[in-house]
Design a protein that fits this description.
It is built from 3 helices and no strands. The protein has 95 residues and is an all-alpha fold. The chain has one domain. The longest helix is centred in the first third of the chain and has 29 residues.
């Protein structure tokens, strides 16, 4: 059971880094430092969005309209941190 929880914790770590990469990439695209018309940037952007959209979609549907600010990544990031805390606290109970 501990191994399964450690694997889930590791997957959540990877997901956190993907969310951070998407946030940084979106800033770089919005400030025209990177160009979405470049094939590599376009592939990376689409790939990251395809990974994260299943997490963001349900949250965006339930949240009220906030204009141009998207709080879905923040909510998912906080949920991941909460899950990691729960996993970390419960791993000790299985020894």
């Amino acid at each position: 059971m501990v191994s399964i929880l450690q694997i889930i914790h590791m997957i959540l770590d990877v997901l956190k880094y993907v969310i951070i990469a998407q946030i940084v990439l979106s800033w770089l695209l919005n400030f025209n430092i990177l160009n979405i018309n470049q094939p590599l940037i376009n592939q990376i952007w689409r790939g990251v969005n395809q990974v994260l959209e299943p997490l963001y979609g349900p949250i965006r549907r339930r949240m009220p309209y906030t204009g141009s600010i998207d709080f879905a990544p923040l909510i998912v990031f906080i949920a991941i941190l909460a899950l990691q805390i729960i996993i970390r606290n419960n791993i000790g109970n299985f020894y």
